[in-house]
Amino acid sequence: MRRLITCLLFVTLPLCVQAAEKTEKLLFIGNSFTFFNGGIEHHASQLARYARQSANPLAFRNAFGGETLQGHIQRRNTPDIINMQPWNHVIIQGYSNEPLTDYKRFENAAKTLSEMAANQGAQSHLLITWAYRNRPVMIEKLQDAYLKAARHLGNDAIPAGPAFALALERRPSLNLYSDNKHPNLAGTYLAACVVYQWLFDKPATQSQYTAGLPAELATFLQTVAQDTVIAFRDK
């Protein structure tokens, strides 16, 4: 998983957007969980576009296969990307089991990245990842670790992983994975719905964007995202 897929992705939105409208700049820091299926940032931007909201996001990502947060600081150009311009939101997502193998290093790296973002005037968010397909109970420890770090850092935690768990609880036959770890398109779309609703406080169910998924499935995933975000707002 060490292959470099994309260093930075710029998602363009319609040219008809008026200059007077507010533009939200989003930076996603992560790995293959971030960039699979076109990228969480792409689908979150499309959800906003199809909802015709006034805050039209420009979403970027800095993601490398198999990368940890510490690796982003030590081996990658992530600090330069953060310092490139004033972001509105920086979404920080660790390696799949990173918070569980060395929590202190994970939190310290998240703190460093959050401080870099704050220096650019950005609000930082930790993105809770999902459990492995064959280890569903893993989500409880992941959720606890991300929430603990978020509290210590004064951030919040976007509940993508918990949305996976809720979707599979409601529909056990649903497949959200392309292998044991990575999301398929439905999984990426679900994560994007959670990110969209969390950042913009607008129901994903109000967007007509389906990412090419069957309409019934897209509506189901939008509803799961909405219910997950509502449940997590007070955590």
From TrEMBL:
Keyword Signal: yes
GO molecular function, one term: hydrolase activity, acting on ester bonds
Domain of life: Bacteria
Leader sequence segment: 1-19
Keywords assigned: Signal
Protein name in the entry: SGNH/GDSL hydrolase family protein
Species assigned in the record: Salinimonas iocasae
